[in-house]
Automatic annotation (TrEMBL):
<keyword id="KW-0810">Translation regulation</keyword>
<feature type="domain" description="MI">
    <location>
        <begin position="434"/>
        <end position="555"/>
    </location>
</feature>
<dbReference type="GO" id="GO:0006417">
    <property type="term" value="P:regulation of translation"/>
</dbReference>
<dbReference type="InterPro" id="IPR039778">
    <property type="entry name" value="PDCD4"/>
</dbReference>
<feature type="compositionally biased region" description="Low complexity">
    <location>
        <begin position="35"/>
        <end position="44"/>
    </location>
</feature>
<feature type="compositionally biased region" description="Basic and acidic residues">
    <location>
        <begin position="11"/>
        <end position="20"/>
    </location>
</feature>
<dbReference type="InterPro" id="IPR016024">
    <property type="entry name" value="ARM-type_fold"/>
</dbReference>
<feature type="region of interest" description="Disordered">
    <location>
        <begin position="1"/>
        <end position="132"/>
    </location>
</feature>
<dbReference type="GO" id="GO:0045892">
    <property type="term" value="P:negative regulation of DNA-templated transcription"/>
</dbReference>
<protein>
    <submittedName>
        <fullName>Programmed cell death protein 4</fullName>
    </submittedName>
</protein>
<dbReference type="GO" id="GO:0090549">
    <property type="term" value="P:response to carbon starvation"/>
</dbReference>
<keyword id="KW-0539">Nucleus</keyword>
<feature type="compositionally biased region" description="Gly residues">
    <location>
        <begin position="88"/>
        <end position="97"/>
    </location>
</feature>
<feature type="domain" description="MI">
    <location>
        <begin position="135"/>
        <end position="256"/>
    </location>
</feature>
<feature type="domain" description="MI">
    <location>
        <begin position="602"/>
        <end position="721"/>
    </location>
</feature>
<dbReference type="GO" id="GO:0005829">
    <property type="term" value="C:cytosol"/>
</dbReference>
<feature type="domain" description="MI">
    <location>
        <begin position="299"/>
        <end position="420"/>
    </location>
</feature>
Amino acid sequence: IMDFSEGYVSNEHRELHRSATESADPLSVSPLQLSTKSTRSPKSPRSPKSPRSPKSPRSPKVQGKCSNLTPRNNRPSYFQNDGRPKKGGSGGKGTWGGLLDTDDSNVLDPNDPNYDSTEEYDHSNEKKPTTELEDYKKKAIVIVEEYFATDDVVATMNEVKELGKPEYGYYFVKKLVSMSMDRHDKEKEMAAILLSALYADIFDPSQVYKGFGKLVESADDLIVDIPDTVEVLALFIARAVVDDILPPAFLKKQMAHLPKDSKGVEVLKKTEKSYLAAPLHAEIIERCWGGSKNTTVDDVKAKINNFLKEYVVSGDKKEAFRCIKDLKVPFFHHEIVKRALIMAMERRQAEPPLLDLLKEAAEEGFINSSQMSKGFDRLIDTVDDLSLDIPNARGILQQLMSKAASEGWLCVSSLKSLSVEPERNTIEDSAAKNFKVKTQSIIKEYFLSGDILEVNSCLEQENSNNCAALNAIFVKKLITLAMDRKNREKEMASVLLSSLCFPSDDVVSGFVMLIESADDTALDNPVVVEDLAMFLARAVVDEVLAPQHLEEIGTQCLGPDSVGSKVLQMTKSLLKARLAGERILRCWGGGGSSKPGWAVEDVKDMIGKLLEEYESGGDIREACRCMKELGMPFFHHEVVKKALVTIIEKKNERLWGLLKECYESGLITMNQMVKGFQRVAESLDDLALDVPDAKTQFACYVERAKAKGWLDSSFCFNKQEQATENGTH
């Protein structure tokens, strides 16, 4: 600091300083305070290096400011620095302070005349939310570490609940998973169990969703420290989907927001293709890290049985639901349904509370609709065995199904049929085994000879009662053997299936059995989905099955990712394609051999000759046999059309008898009958040129066909659009 005595200040300045000092109020202004009027810094004592007293003259700049006549509180600041020493040394030009300054804080003084409240407000609020999140992060890490050490789910849930801040739940999810990823399988399994426990009870589902979203986004960073991030994180996401704490739609939604070359996209693709698309993926994923304390299926069944017995005695639904949740096997909830129903059938007094439990479990989402239906289906399959111990088990089960359906927690249409005649649905194991052995030899012989009549004869001997279960076994065996052979045998199998005229329900049962065993078949036949889809589409084209039967088969599929769902999806795609009928018919060469199939014109010519031969006195059985041998059931509307035109032209109703026989035997379906009548209706104007009363005759035959049930009552040949409604679309 410059000293006045050293000649740096003029006499005029000394005089000004003296007059200012004498006029100042000693109580309100101290010499030290005068030094800080030009700044907004806290008070600072003079440096001990200065030998001068507080009354020593100040610098000229300070003098000038002190002598200013502007009111004190309105004086502007000429300096932007805080007036403190630079780098611990003495003060800068026009400032006070030195090495021994004790006031080293940056806190603004509200008593400072130049104090600005907005500066302190803005500065203090910047760090508040960040501080909260940082505090939450520290506590979350401690909780996760303690959980891995103690394996106490309940205590950890209480700690998370006490921690509060539900809006930061996503971070806990992210931290729990990321910390377990770099540890052993035990910690990974513990993390998955804790997430299921926290879901909905402590953390909102949206926070769990967001937490996994953050994990996927940070996959590129995680892989730096955890090389197998893609595999482990993909498995965590798959486990979350299986445990019903993350919706399957998470995969597609997240993939849409990530860069295509990011590790997050790689994680999501691996989750979908390697884990969720695999057969029996739920059971595999649930046991990927050893499972919940390595619990076996028998252990789970025992636990289910115990808590159901306790519930019947206590009636405590909350405890029952807690037990269901603690099992952590959502894919096995059908066992709960099955055991609850058996208990209700065995102990009739327990029926009301057990049905009430299942109803509320369905409504609250503890047991989903697919698991509920599967539980009932399993009981339907074993109802005849139950009849040995429970009299009228079939009737009781029917009552339970009706009650559940009326209360709205069971979709009966998605269940297997519960026939009153047990012999139609079930057969003795010994009879089934013998039939399977004989069926295999019959089919192998057919593949060598191609003799359909011989197959029919053998089946009449082995299945004289036309048992539905045996028919279904034959369908399954026929297609299974054909899938393992060449196109010739596949074509022969389709031709035989359309020639046997099995009831459609039996064929449906056969395909359901095929789909249920598809996972095992896939081990030997990698293209089982494509083969089954083609056989199913061919059955629809051949009108062995109707399109609505596909939906019936679909109800037997376990889920959207099951083999059955993939088969149905591919079948529908094949049937929707342009010229699907002709293409599917020729998929394996046509005609039951490697030779190409008939051309359409050739088929029309053969149909014409067939009708002429029958009209002239031919045998009706021979005519039906010839139609079957054509192997083109989707083209039978041509038979209907040509027969009707001949009847109208020649007024000979012998062909009407042929149509009657074909319809009643199932050779010509209603769909083909409608198409045939529709085609005649479209050509009536041309036909009337040769037969004036053609329209009158046709109207008469339409009414007769409606009376016999060949046509729907809404069929109207005068309006093309109404007629079209009865065709296929």
